[in-house]
Amino acid sequence: MSKTHIIAALDGDGIGPEIMAVALEALAIVGKQSGVTFDVRHAPFGGQAYFDTGSAFPEATKKVCDEADAILKGPIGLSFEESKKIPIDEQPERGALLPLRKRYNTFANFRPVYLPAELAHFSPLKPHAVAGGIDIMIIRELVGGLYFGEKERGVRNGLRYVKETLEYDEDQIKRILEVGFEEARKRKKVLHNVHKSNVLKSSVLWNEVLDEVAPGYPDVQVKHVIVDAAATALVLNPRQFDVMVMENMFGDILSDLGGGILGSLGLMPSACVGTKGSYYEPSHGSAPDIAGMGIANPYSMIGSVAMMLEKSFGMDAEARRLWDAMRFVFGQGFTTADLRDPEGKLKPVSTREFADKVLAKLAG
Ligand code: IPM
Ligand code: MN
Fold it and tell me: How far is CA 94 from CA 33, 98, 142, 269, in A?
């Protein structure tokens, strides 16, 4: 009997439905080639879901996600003006995305900063900085820290104030560090530990736990780097990094810096792996300004499918074929208008045409 995997597809907002549609076509080809059935079930999620159903993460969507073997999520979010029409706690980031992370306890966020030769022209860094390619895996803790700490807002002494707390317990730290070590072990056996222990006590505990975990990985070399210095080092010499591990907020910021190194967040897929489920999403927003124009590059969504194949279904070879197909199309000089092309030498095509070239390579 052939295998079936149930996939919850949350198309999301803005360019989400456009890039999801073609990514699912790629998934269908993989299914056909490998004899695996992907049973894809769409469900509303995000800003449009709020307008349509009154909830950014409707109960029916939760059910679809609960029953799925993996969740594929498009970008969500609305323009600033549209967002203001929604109560603050129901806005898609707070009302849908963070609850999704919490529901499946997706503590391990993998964000590849991957710039092979075929994509090198997108990077704003000088050729000498990117020669030979960049391949960094940023591992971001995703369900702790400031994002999920207690919050308070009020008025004290006649002044409005706000308090947000950064909290981690040792188990939360240990499990993400272990993910970092495991990843480093599979790759170059160097783990950059990003922290701010010169100021934050959370980082002091983080590093204490690291010292306890590290002996279990004698083959992995740990290098410490303070988060602000890491930002500079990433720009000056990104090739010195391979696997980097860090807490939630640091990872949010440095992974966007990674997008800057690549030349666009549109080149950043991601995997969010949890104890109760996993979901896969582009690291970027919904780009409402270009929604419906057919110019969004599907790389981050197809890349998220590749990460799902690898991490949820152990289909490493199939995942590699997706990456290879996209690299091949970029290598031929094709692009979409949303990606930067400072020298004007690339051949811009539509989302559909770009996807067709990827699908043709995949099928061929
Ligand atoms: C990301 C995004 C989210 C985050 C937002 C949309 C809540 O920026 O996935 O990096 O801050 O985690
Ligand atoms: Mn972010």
Answer: 39, 6, 14, 21
In angstroms, rounded to a whole number, what is the distance separating the alpha carbons of residues 291 and 286?
Answer: 8
pLDDT (0 to 100) of residue 340: 85
Q: Which two tokens stand for residue 142?
A: 């995703």
CB 247 within 8 A of CB 144: yes
CB 275 within 8 A of CB 331: no
Domains of the chain are 1-115+264-364 (3.40.718.10), 124-262 (3.40.718.10)
Mean pLDDT of 209-225: 98
Atom 5, ligand 1: which residue's CA is nearest? Answer: 93
Cα–Cα distance between 346 and 342 in angstroms, integer?
9
Residue type, 21: A
252 is catalytic: yes
CA dist 225 and 193 (Å) reads: 6
Rg (CA), the chain: 20
In short, whether 304's Cβ falls inside 6 Å of ligand 1 is: no
User: By the 8 A CB rule, do 68 and 311 touch?
Assistant: no
Q: Please tell me what DSSP assigns to residue 95.
A: I
C-beta separation of 22 from 38 below 8 A: no
3-state percent helix, strand, coil for the chain, nearest multiple of 5: 50, 20, 30
Please identify, by atom number, the ligand 1 atom nearest to the C-alpha of residue 109.
9
The burial class, CB within 10 Å (0-12 / 13-18 / 19+), for 352 is middle
Q: What is the pLDDT of residues 37-96, one digit of tens each?
A: 999 999 999 999 999 999 999 999 999 999 999 999 999 999 999 999 999 999 999 999
Ligand 1 test: best mutation among 252, 270, 286, most atoms within 8 Å of CB?
252
**339's tokens:** 């990606």
Residue 78, SS3 per DSSP: coil
pLDDT in tens, 338-359: 998 888 999 999 999 999 999 9
Look at residues 260, 138, 145 and name the one whose alpha carbon lies nearest to residue 193. Answer: 138
- Compute the distance between CA of residue 221 and CA of residue 214 in angstroms, rounded to an integer: 9
Residue labelled with tokens 């939630």: 248
